[in-house]
Amino acid sequence: MDHDPLTAPIAGIETQDFVGAKIDSLAVGDARVKRMILPVGSRWSKGVKPIVGTEFCEHAHVGFLARGRFAGTYADGDTFDYQAPAIIAVDAGHDSWVEGDEEVVLIQFDFETETLERLGLTQRKRG
Description:
This protein is mainly β and 127 residues long. The chain has helices spanning 44-47, 49-52, 115-118, and strands at residues 14-18, 21-28, 31-38, 61-67, 69-74, 79-83, 86-90, 94-99, 104-110. The chain has one domain: Jelly Rolls (Sandwich), CATH 2.60.120.10.
């Protein structure tokens, strides 16, 4: 089996498996750097929504899409569609999914619910 540095285990960090996704996380100062590996076919509204109980994902995503295609829609019907390699900025209040037949690998920088504010970004849709 080939070694894939985008998905290989990383020593010394927090790892969580959540609804089929693998989330590796490391605190860096006040921020967190996360590697999210989302499997083919995953969709926030089908896997996560029943667990968290909100209509849409209330977490902003800012980072580097290293692999795959990450798409979604906002509550007002606007859409986003990113294909790796891409720098992404997705506002809170969206549904998202892996598009196509390749997993998504996203390197994300966040401050939990304060991501946009702490990064100096206004709440506006991108993509």
